[in-house]
Amino acid sequence: MNATRTVACLIYPDVMSLDVTGPMQVFASANVEQQRQGLPQHYKLLLLGASVGPVATSAGLQFVADASWVGCDPAALDTLLIPGGFGVDTQKRDQALLDWLRFAEPQVRRLGSVCSGALILAEAGLFDGRKATTHWADLAALGEYPAIEVQGDRLHTYDPADPQGAHLFSSAGVTAGIDLALALVEADLGRARALAVAQRLVMFLRRPGGQTQFSTLLTAPNGSVARLAALLEWIPGHLGDDLSIEALATQAHMTPRTLCRLFSQETGMGPGQYIERVRLEAARNLLLDAQASIATVARLTGFGHPENLRRSFQKHLSVSPREFYQRFG
Asked: Which ranges carry the HTH araC/xylS-type domain (predicted)?
């Protein structure tokens, strides 16, 4: 077993709290799983600020910096994470910080960003000639750095099979930092340990980095201003509810006729087809990581009976749920 690895996360005024706590909790939970197996903790967690002491996040909560990056020896760090938040613009103008990041980059084993933290590393020039992603709302800002190959359709760019992608990487918005951290844990401790952490954190699955930030079902293909946006965001969390046309129309505060017309215009399919596709996508994701039995998956995703789930799989994928799991799960 390797020696304890120090994972450090930068904090600064108006940092996004979840960009910090999400990934760091993954590493902390990995330590818990290690202890459950009678093994020593694998990670030492460290918060780095401009100075030691409390730092106010954008949520109004305060974090406490364990050490100052000013006097920190990067060679003592295994992994360094740069989170995003409202305070990113100020950090981009901090030349001392940018110089320290350039100094630290070749000395740490892994350097990555969470959410808009990518803009700090971009300003330091560390993503020049590389692929990078960030929160969808900041993709245009990242695109202002012409030397960066911006990838807006993925959750993170970490790739343990690629020496460059395993060393310097980025992740998309907020919770994608958790997916990134799980990928790092998997590279360090194996897939079984990463899945145990995901289960401990009550996550349905560990999403691969190449997965798009959005489900294709939740975006209007014609690029119009979607009047259905609120409804489309509501549907995935209520797959087990009554999602009849009448119920959807009531939720969207419009008539069933208007609802059907807008669905056709903005999604290219009727409400019933759309609901089935969303339920099918949710069921596929659950089966991919074997998070539940087929009967439970059918119930959770609104298909009700496993036979309804089987028919949908056969119709759209030409394979049964069981065969799908055996091939891809």
From this structure: 229-327
Which pLDDT tens digit goes with each residue over 151-167?
Answer: 987 889 999 999 999 99
Tens digit of pLDDT for each residue in 248-296? 999 999 999 999 999 888 878 899 999 998 998 888 888 876 667 899 9
Distance CA 148, CA 122 (A): 8
Domain edges within the chain: 5-200, 216-328
| Residue 206: exposure state from Cβ atoms within 10 A (0-12, 13-18, ≥19) | buried
The domain defined by 5-200 folds into Rossmann fold (3.40.50)
- 301 with 309: CB under 8 angstroms? yes
User: Do the beta carbons of residue 111 and residue 121 sit within 8 Å?
Assistant: yes
Q: State the catalytic residues.
A: 115
Contact criterion met (CB below 8 Å) for 158 and 165: yes
